[in-house]
Amino acid sequence: MTEIVPPDGQPMVQVEGVGLTRTDGQGREAVILSEVTFSAAKGRITAIVGPSGGGKSSLIRLINRLDDPTTGRILLGGEDIAGMDPLLLRRRVAMVLQRPFMFPGTLLHNLQRPLAYRREAVPDAGSVEVRRTLELARLAPDLLERDARSLSIGQQQRASLARAVITSPRVLLLDEPTSALDRPTGDQLAAALQDICRHQGMAVILVTHDLRLAGKIADDLIYLEAGRIREAGPAAHVLAEPASAELIGFLAEPEREGKHG
């Protein structure tokens, strides 16, 4: 399988003028996203925040073609994903959903599952791949033989993360990964994300309602409201000195953000 690597200086993901419309049962068109443009570099975490219903989850679904944009294009390593085999694309763009799902069996079986699906060599418990992935995801090796569904919700969320990264994707998408976690457990997951991003050189794109999390781990931040990017830039600067009325209002009332965008 050919490795997807962007040319020097080019972002791993480029979203260019993307729009998304849907038609309801009465034939009326609803604009979900409009003229969305941004890029995500390898080794950096990009957080997407904004009010519920603003199009955040719809946007990241486009990046691994769970849906296709109505207008615009999305590039992975400089290649338009519209022309890529969806299976190949999803080997390079992994997604971790809000609620962790564990397959029947042990944690080790769950880590082996994506490789088995691809008919690739399955690593054993003592392999370098498994040991490195457990370390990055902050999971103890003695959990490998535990029934995955008996793990705590925080352990399951980190297990989902480990299962996604063991295949070495180039892009990692996360949709509200800490919404079901308490603060200490969420901080553990955040630390794991930073380690994975830096050590694996992935472009991480994170949808979150948690402004504290975004401020803690994001390198870059995008504020999305009503399907449009209202503000974007280095996370620390955007959160400390918001320039748009929309973001200023959102920061003043973050509780209006729900768990589904």
UniProtKB/TrEMBL annotation:
Keyword DNA-binding tagged: no
InterPro entries xrefs: AAA+_ATPase, ABC_transporter-like_ATP-bd, P-loop_NTPase
SUPFAM superfamilies on file: P-loop containing nucleoside triphosphate hydrolases
PROSITE patterns, sorted: ABC_TRANSPORTER_2
Entry keyword set: ATP-binding, Nucleotide-binding
Pfam families in UniProt: ABC_tran (PF00005)
Residue intervals of the ABC transporter domain: 13-251
One Gene Ontology molecular-function label: ATP hydrolysis activity
Name of this chain's protein: ATP-binding cassette domain-containing protein
